[in-house]
Write a structure and sequence with these properties.
single chain; 280 residues; four-stranded antiparallel beta sheet
Length: 280
């Protein structure tokens, strides 16, 4: 076991390690609580060959890494100056820290980066009432939309084939797949019959197209699930895919329940927690 150190505060946590032994995590930079968060300043870090590099933030007092690829690129979420908004970020040794922008809202997050540097996440639209999944590539953020009728949608994983998976909701939550510049597809429309599970989240997709996530039974119990592509797609399979993609365009609603932002933050809390607090 090797002590990686901290960025100056008392505590740090390593979250990711890639195939090159590079590590990403977060650390307090001091021991003084900020009035806006009640916590000391918290920065993401990149560790390599015995040296911890402070990635910094986009002006705020809190930054959280949420993905690391094999090129040493780190993505995540960072508060802006004043801690009144957040943006997805991408960091690497060559370009430094970059604000990936938004789809018009004040909140955004990057959850995944593949080895080509493509980033997937979620961003609110203007007004912060509706969130769409996004794909960021070469400085351009593309709106992937949402499952029809849903107002909260974010991408959680992207593979080398540009296939993206994530979650849409808020009620009921659904796992989805996006590929080939087509619309987002509810994975429950593609699952072969015979299972009582409803796909409520798609958390990871590998380069074989296998998807790991969460499924829910009729009694409310949640189970870990693995979705495996069914080989060659016959006529019936193709028909199911075509039918699942014939959703109407998502509506940009003007008003939403006030629990939309807490719903996103609650989802983030499940994947990230402040130092010293247990996972929820």
């Amino acid at each position: 076991m090797q002590d990686l150190g901290t960025l100056g505060g008392n505590d740090a946590e390593a979250l990711f390690v890639n195939d090159r032994g590079q590590v990403a995590g977060f650390s307090y930079t001091n021991t003084v609580a900020n009035p806006s968060t009640g916590l000391p300043t918290q920065d993401p870090f990149f560790w390599e060959d015995g040296k911890m590099v402070d990635i910094g933030t986009l002006g705020g007092t809190s930054g959280n890494p949420l993905g690391l690829n094999n090129r040493g690129q780190v993505v995540g979420i960072s508060n802006l100056a004043g801690d009144t908004g957040s943006r997805p970020f991408l960091w690497d040794k060559k370009e430094g820290l970059r604000d990936l922008g938004s789809l018009g809202g004040t909140q955004g997050v990057a959850f995944s980066v593949n080895d080509s540097g493509l980033v997937a996440g979620g961003s609110y639209l203007p007004g912060d009432q509706v969130e769409h999944a996004f794909l960021w590539e070469n400085g351009v953020m593309t709106d992937l939309g949402t499952v029809a009728g849903d107002q909260l949608c974010f991408a959680l994983s992207i593979n080398s084939k540009r296939q993206v998976v994530g979650e849409s909701g808020p009620t009921p939550p659904l796992g989805w797949l996006w590929e080939n510049s087509g619309p987002i597809v509810d994975l429950n429309q593609l699952v072969l019959p015979g299972s009582e599970l409803t796909v409520v989240s798609a958390s990871f997709i590998n380069d074989r197209g296998e998807i790991a996530g969460e499924g829910r039974l009729p009694n409310g119990d949640s189970h870990a699930i693995l979705l495996i592509p069914d080989g060659d797609c016959d006529d019936e399979c193709e028909a199911r895919i075509a039918a699942s993609q014939n959703f109407p365009a998502a509506a940009h609603v003007s008003s939403m329940p006030n629990n939309l932002m807490p719903a996103m933050r609650g989802r983030l809390a499940g994947r990230f927690h402040p130092i010293g607090e247990p996972n929820k």
